[in-house]
């Protein structure tokens, strides 16, 4: 007799079965998983005696005149469904449930349980891994009050040039956090995290946010702060979406622009500071929700955002790179073509540069080499450093173009 296994899978598998279980229903879909159903699920059906409890939530659809103006979010629980996954010989039984979460009192959390034969666990995990790998070709940031944003996931953290302290407090902490969920639960500590990244523009804050958002299985979300009519309801919707799609990453860029104490500052949104604080505090009860915020000038932030412990577990500065980091950058770009004397000159002349400005120097040198159909030389890079250093000495010349907003590529390496 074959023995069965019960697996809790942290993937919204029930979404991919909905088209088969509710044919003809105008289903609401996130852009990030449109088309995924056919790639993962061949068919799904209810047992003859199943009585699923479903929740229908209307969502405006927009689109062409011939398409439905309203689509439906569907959630079901309390009844199993048979699901045939591509690459597996037998169906699995999918059972979404709302279960008690003892560390958080009476709070209920959603969980997807898959019942299958033990020998099918390996094909299941292999198929899920292939599915997630294919999805990583592109990824989307859900925008609660605007169109979703597409971005190409970064290949990993190793391509970033980060200060050792940033690496320890952000990258290492972020990766370790995800591998120790059981530890948090065993201690009765909410499985959540908050990061505030601050410092001058162009030093890698957005690159780090992108690296976080690129993590497989993590659902990134944000809101358009400058969109007309953005209000407390939008912020509530953002955190609610994150809780429903956990593990999720709530991205809040340029927080110092939106909640500043600077005189004569104008705000385009109608989100109150009190409501922001309530959302940040309430996220502690939302398992698997991570908040990452960025700020260029944290001293202008309202002190209430920073004063209460636990709103942000890590507050990390992204300063302009020091001598060692600038030297590492130049060596990385030139490789064996970088001599010690030229390296010292570039490091000395680039004092005060941000990572974005270092990158601008490299691009300028690369364009010059390209026009002459040759490789980039130490002289090319040194010349572009001298040009930028001279421009920065001129009045008004210390500003550098930088991309605005996630998910455009940050200029930092």
Please, could you describe this protein's structure?
With 413 residues, the chain is of the alpha/beta class. It has three domains: 4-135, no CATH class; 149-317, P-loop containing nucleotide triphosphate hydrolases (Rossmann fold); 323-393. It contains 14 helices and 14 strands. It is globular and about 80 Å long.
Task: Name the descriptors.
single chain, 413 residues, alpha/beta, Rossmann fold, 3 domains, 7-stranded mixed sheet, 14 helices, 14 strands, 35% helix, globular, disordered C terminus
Trace the largest sheet across and list its strands.
9-8-11-12-13-10-14
- How many domains make up the 3D coordinates? 3
Give the helices and strands as they follow along the chain: EHHEEEEEEHEEHHEHEHEHHEHEHHHH
Annotation field: number of helices: 14
Biggest sheet features: 7 strands, mixed
Mean pLDDT: 81
Shape: globular
| Poorly predicted segments | 399-413
CATH architecture of the largest domain: 3-Layer(aba) Sandwich
The CATH topology of the largest domain is given as: Rossmann fold
Distance between the termini: 57 Å
């Amino acid at each position: 007799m074959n023995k069965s296994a019960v697996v809790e899978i942290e993937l919204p598998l029930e979404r991919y079965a909905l088209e088969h279980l509710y044919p003809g229903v105008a289903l609401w879909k996130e852009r990030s998983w449109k088309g995924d159903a056919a790639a993962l699920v061949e068919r799904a059906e209810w047992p003859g005696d199943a009585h699923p409890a479903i929740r229908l939530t209307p969502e405006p659809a927009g689109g062409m005149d011939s398409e439905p103006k309203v689509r439906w979010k569907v959630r079901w629980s309390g009844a199993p469904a048979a699901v045939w996954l591509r690459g597996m010989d037998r169906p699995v039984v999918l059972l979404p449930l709302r279960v008690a979460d003892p560390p958080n009192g009476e709070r209920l959390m959603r969980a997807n349980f898959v019942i299958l034969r033990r020998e099918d666990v390996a094909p299941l995990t292999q198929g899920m891994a292939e599915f997630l790998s294919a999805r990583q070709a592109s990824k989307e940031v859900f925008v609660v009050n605007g169109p979703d944003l597409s971005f190409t996931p970064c290949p990993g953290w190793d391509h970033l040039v980060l200060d050792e302290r940033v690496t320890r407090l952000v990258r290492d902490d972020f990766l370790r956090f995800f591998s120790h969920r059981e530890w948090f639960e065993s201690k009765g500590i909410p499985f959540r995290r908050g990061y505030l990244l601050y410092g001058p523009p162009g030093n890698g804050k957005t690159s780090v946010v992108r690296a976080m958002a690129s993590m497989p299985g993590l659902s990134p979300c944000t809101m358009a702060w400058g969109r007309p009519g953005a209000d407390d309801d939008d912020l509530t919707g953002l955190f609610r979406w994150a809780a429903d799609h956990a593990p999720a990453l709530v991205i809040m860029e340029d927080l110092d622009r939106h909640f500043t104490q600077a005189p004569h500052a104008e705000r385009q949104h109608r989100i109150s500071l009190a409501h922001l604080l309530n959302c940040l505090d309430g996220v502690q009860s939302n398992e698997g929700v991570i908040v990452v915020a960025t700020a260029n000038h944290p001293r202008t932030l309202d002190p209430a955002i920073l004063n209460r412990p636990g709103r942000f577990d890590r507050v990390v500065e992204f300063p302009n790179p020091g001598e060692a980091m600038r030297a590492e950058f130049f060596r990385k770009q030139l490789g064996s073509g970088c001599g010690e004397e030229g390296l010292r000159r570039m490091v000395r002349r680039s004092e005060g540069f941000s990572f974005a400005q270092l990158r601008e120097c490299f691009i300028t040198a690369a364009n010059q080499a390209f026009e002459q159909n040759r490789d980039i030389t130490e002289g090319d890079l040194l010349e572009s450093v001298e040009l930028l250093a001279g421009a920065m000495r001129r009045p008004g010349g210390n500003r550098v173009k930088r991309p605005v907003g996630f998910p455009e590529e940050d200029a930092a390496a």
